[in-house]
Every structure is written in structure tokens, then in C-alpha cells.
Amino acid sequence: MDWKAVNFDWNRARAFLVTAEEGSLSAAARALGMTQPTLGRQVSALEKELNVVLFERAGQGLILTPNGLDLVEHVRAMGEAANKVSLAASGQSQSIEGCVCISASEVHAYFWLPKIIKKLRCIAPKINIEIIATNKVSDLRRREADIAIRNFRPTHPELIARKIKDEQAQLYATADYIQQLNKPISLSSLNQADFISFDSSGLLTNGLNEMGLSLTKANFPIISENFLTHWQLIKQGLGIGIMPIDIAESDPLVLQVMPDFPAIEYPVWLTTHRELNSSRRVRLVFDLLVEELQKPYQAD
């Protein structure tokens, strides 16, 4: 390999890659935790080093030039290689200290993780925890998190996972709202009820209809993608919603709407990157999560 021909700065190449992916200098600067002028200088310096123009302005954003399009895939491969180096180095760490980032759904982050983290702090007080509470999938291969609590099994060979359990959810509402429904409560009366959705794609509507209901968009006057807001809307008597049974049964403000309605079952998986599985601190957190998430939920 001709090492003398490699005459550009990787930090500048990274600045170029993140700018290309984010679409603007301001968004890229936020992603990298640096100021926009500093990032702009790094991109300009890379253009000077390579003697090419990488971006053209388009309104408030940037678009890649033909030269930029040619180079971005090569730089993206460099970024993935650099990420693998970082993962491998993290995986070799045998210290029971440092940061572990956990990605979890809003429900798991709110109802489950605080007690688990309290126990972890007693066991390993030098481990710092970052929690990403999101219903979106964090990319573990790109180090968006070290461990993820998910409702599906990962298929990528770089990831390892352990199934924790199968959770069940049911339809819940307040007693006052249930009193407003046609009696006896049946699929027909549920088809006339208001439901609270947590997505606008129709996924919930289709799922419930596959279970015997005949709901339309009119049955969902309120939508909130935030699941904790979804739960509070249910508790205010605004309609019927879904919640895991073990959590909902601990709340005296709600009741199962139709106890013989089929339970909604879904798996819980714990996932991490294969390289991080050899890190003592990540392994300690992973094993504790496995142990605690298998236990029945207990309210405060």
C-alpha cells in the first residue's frame, strides 16, 4: 500500500460524511457536538486537500456534487471500519466502570428501568447509564446504543440477543368510559367506541381488525406517538387503549374493557453488539437486565 498517497485528515473526512448524511452543516455540527464554523472549515479543508468540490448549496441545505457522490461511499466504508475499531476496543475493556447506553421503548424505560438502574448503582456505582427512551429502533452497529430492549429478534450476524419473555397486552379504559358502552359489551359495542392510537399508519387499526373488530379511522379521534401520553389519555377517560397487562393491572384507574378479548402477545428481546459482549461492564448490565426483566412487574 502506498501510504504516502493517503494524505488527508480522517476527522475532515468524517465531517464530510456526517454533513452528507445530515444534509446541512448545522445538523452535522449538532450530530458531532461541534460548532458550525469549525465543521465548515473541516469540510473546506478536505476539499482543498483532495482538490475537489464536494457540496453545492440548495436553499438552506447542501447537496453532493458528482465528485462528492463518488467519494461519499468510500468515506462511509471508512466510517464503518472506524466504528468497528471502536467497538472492538470497547469489547476488550475489562473495567467495571464507564458508560453503558440502553435503548428501550417508552414503556420499558418508564416502568421498568428506574428500579433496575437503582439496583445496578448499588452493584456497580462506577458504571454510568444513559437511557434512550424511544419507540424507534436504535442502530447498535453504529453505536447509537450498547444494549437495546426490543420486541423483535435481530437478524444481523453482528448482533446477539436473548429472548426475555412474551408479554401480553389488553384493551383498557376507565370505569366511567366503560359504562358509556352498549351493554353487554361485545365486538359490536367496541366497534362504536373511541380508541386512542399510538401511530398514524393504520398499524393498530389493522391489528385490532385482524382480531375480530371492524374499526375505521373514525374510531381513532386521538393519536399520540408517545406511549406515556397514550396511557394518560386512557386514564382521563377519553377512550380505549392498549397497555401491558402486568402494568395496567397495577393501576386502579383502569379496567379491562372486555376480559374475554384475545390478549395481544409480543416478545421481549435483549440485544447487544457481538463485540461488546466481551466487555465486563456491558456484560454486567446485560445480565442484570435479563434477570430483572424476567420478574413480574411491581408498582411502587
What is the number of strand segments? 11
Helicity level:
40-55%
Strand content: 15-25%
Q: How many helices in DSSP terms?
A: 11
Description:
With 300 residues, the protein is of the alpha/beta class. Helices cover 41% and strands 20% of the residues. It has three domains: 3-91, Arc Repressor Mutant, subunit A; 98-162 and 268-293, 3-Layer(aba) Sandwich (D-Maltodextrin-Binding Protein, domain 2); 167-265, Periplasmic binding protein-like II (D-Maltodextrin-Binding Protein, domain 2, 3-Layer(aba) Sandwich), CATH 3.40.190. The chain has eleven helices and eleven strands. Strands 3, 4, 5, 6, 9, 10 and 11 form a seven-stranded mixed beta sheet that branches. β3, α5 (106-123) and β4 (127-133) form a beta-alpha-beta unit.
Entry summary:
By secondary structure, the chain is α/β, with parallel strands linked by helices. The chain is built from eleven helices and eleven strands. A hairpin with a 2-residue loop joins strand 1 (55-58) and strand 2.
Question: Could you give the topology of this structure?
Answer:
Blueprint lengths: L9 H13 L2 H8 L3 H15 L4 E4 L2 E4 L1 H26 L6 E7 L1 H18 L3 E7 L13 E4 L8 E15 L1 H5 L7 H4 L5 E2 L5 H8 L11 E2 L3 H9 L5 E4 H4 L6 E2 L7 E10 L6 H14 L7
Helix pairs in contact: 1-2, 1-3, 1-4, 2-3
